[in-house]
TrEMBL record:
Name of the protein described by the UniProt record: ABC transporter ATP-binding protein
Occurrences of domain ABC transporter (ranges): 6-235
Organism: Ectopseudomonas khazarica
Highest taxon in the source lineage: Bacteria
Keyword Nucleotide-binding among UniProt keywords: yes
Entry-linked Gene3D superfamilies: P-loop containing nucleotide triphosphate hydrolases (3.40.50.300)
S-adenosyl-L-methionine in keyword set: no
Keywords for the protein's UniProt record, in alphabetical order: ATP-binding, Nucleotide-binding
The organism's taxonomic lineage, starting at the top: Bacteria, Pseudomonadati, Pseudomonadota, Gammaproteobacteria, Pseudomonadales
């Protein structure tokens, strides 16, 4: 049976007149790789900070690893790791010095700390960099060091707030391989991201919009629940086709993808309406159905509040 690691009920956070998180219900099971996806300012970072006890909620209940938050936030700190978007270690310390310092903060004994630091230097390809000042590292190297620091004390839960926003695609791929190693070993991960390819890697996704959870499920489930059928318009003049389709009720989103136009609609007869409108505008085009992707889901649930995922 699955074990619930994170449970939030009616969670809200207000900053004056601004509601950053609005009645959020959330559940994450052990060893899941749960992805938070949403536009800038939708409440992802605020939610993560409340879950780890760094920010007091305005309303609602939080339970993480059996601890009530914020009441038991201090006790929880020993069992979670937290990695922020911005590199937060000391840039004037070496790689090894940063890890030694974190080991002392986490209360690891000298022998245990020495073994653990050596293990992480090897696991995250930092051995040759152990004596380098952290401020001189590349973005990908800093990311690996930050991850090593976050898991130094072998936490049961790892919270990562847009950890790959400043690194190249190869470094992102290597980073995610490391995350799945942690999940395979039993660590639960909650990761916020802007990247659709990263979202597809998650075992389950929660999409936030204006502080509310508007979709929740595996990537496959979310794509299967997308209403209607995405359409691809192939023509020599996609910008002209896009202008011709403006205001067509059947279409609620369009985007040019290379030399094609990708359309989203919740109606079953959208294809016929599109073909008819293009013909009336004198645009020669081939209109065909195509498979849904996560970007379609993201656009649908953040633009159309009536298209909702199942509640957690």
């Amino acid at each position: 049976m699955s074990e619930t690691v994170i449970r939030a009920s009616s969670l809200s956070k207000r900053f004056g007149d601004l509601t950053a998180v609005d009645g959020l219900d959330l559940r994450v099971e052990r060893a899941e790789v749960f992805g938070f996806l949403g536009p800038n300012g939708c409440g992802k970072s605020t939610t993560i900070r409340m879950l780890c006890g760094l920010l007091l909620p305005s309303a609602g209940e939080i339970e993480v690893l059996g601890y009530r938050i914020p009441q038991d936030a201090e006790a929880l700190k020993r069992r979670i790791g937290y990695m922020t978007q911005k590199f937060s270690l000391y840039e004037d310390l070496t790689v090894a010095e940063n890890l030694d310092f974190l080991a002392s903060i986490q209360g690891l004994g000298r022998a245990q700390a020495r073994r653990r630091v050596a293990e992480l230097l090897e696991r995250y390809w930092l051995g040759d960099l152990r004596d380098r000042l952290s401020g001189t590292l590349s973005g990908g190297q800093k990311q690996r060091l930050a991850l090593a620091g976050a898991v130094l004390h072998e936490p049961d839960l790892l919270l990562l707030d847009e950890p790959t926003s400043a690194v190249d695609p190869q470094s992102r791929r290597e980073f995610w391989d490391s995350l799945f190693e942690l999940a395979e070993a039993g660590t639960t991960l909650l990761v916020s991201t802007h990247y659709m390819d990263e979202a597809e890697r998650c075992t389950r996704l929660g999409i936030l919009d204006s502080g509310r959870l508007v979709a929740d499920g595996s990537p496959a489930e979310l794509m299967a629940r997308l209403p209607g059928q995405p359409l691809l318009v192939e023509c020599a003049q996609p910008r002209q086709a896009q202008r011709a389709l403006q205001g067509l009720p059947a279409i609620y989103a369009s985007a040019q993808i290379g030399a094609s136009l990708r359309l989203l609609s919740a109606t079953d007869d959208a294809r016929e309406q599109v073909e008819r409108r293009l013909a009336e505008a004198g645009v020669q085009a081939r209109v065909r159905a195509t498979e849904a992707n996560l970007e379609d889901v993201f656009v649908a649930v953040t633009r159309r509040p009536d298209i909702q995922g199942a509640t957690p």
